[in-house]
Amino acid sequence: MASVSGKKYCHKCGKEVPIDAKFCPYCGTALTIKETISSPIISKKPILATGVFSLGFGIVFFFLGLRIQYNNNPLNPFHYGGLAGMIGGGLFMALGLALIVYGAPSRKANY
User: Fold this and answer.
1) Spatial CB neighbours of 5, under 8 Å, sequence gap ≥ 6
2) Dmax of the chain from CA atoms?
3) β-strands 8-9, 16-17: how paired?
């Protein structure tokens, strides 16, 4: 039986099961050495949600920076804050898109 630091997980539902179990008490799947996994199944939903939030925040930040940049007098001390907002917004948008791509469900064919 495969175990990591005294823990074993079902390969089907990902829940922790007793080390000596032959069947998963949650879903009933037979547990063999080849079918057990060493860590629980990790969902990518939090990564996807963080990506969407970062993208939205970046868009807002970018357009607020754009508004400050082009509606202020260049002698105004906040004039360069608009440029910083645009750059920061662009970085947040790039981060958001990367997290969305990484967190999106894979499109593997199930044959």
Assistant:
1) none
2) 75
3) antiparallel
Half-sphere exposure of 21 (CA within 13 A, CB side): 23
Q: Which residue blocks in 4-78 are alpha helix, DSSP H?
A: 45-71
Q: For the CA atoms of 21, 22, 24, 28, what is the dihedral angle to 10 degrees?
A: -150
Question: Which of 19, 63, 12 minimizes the C-alpha distance to 40?
Answer: 12
What would the pLDDT profile of 12-44 be if each residue is shown by its tens digit? Answer: 788 888 888 888 888 888 887 654 455 556 666
The per-residue pLDDT for range 41-65, each reduced to its tens digit, is 666 678 888 888 888 888 988 888 8
**Do residues 15 and 36 make contact, with C-beta atoms less than 8 angstroms apart?**
no
End-to-end CA distance of the chain: 28
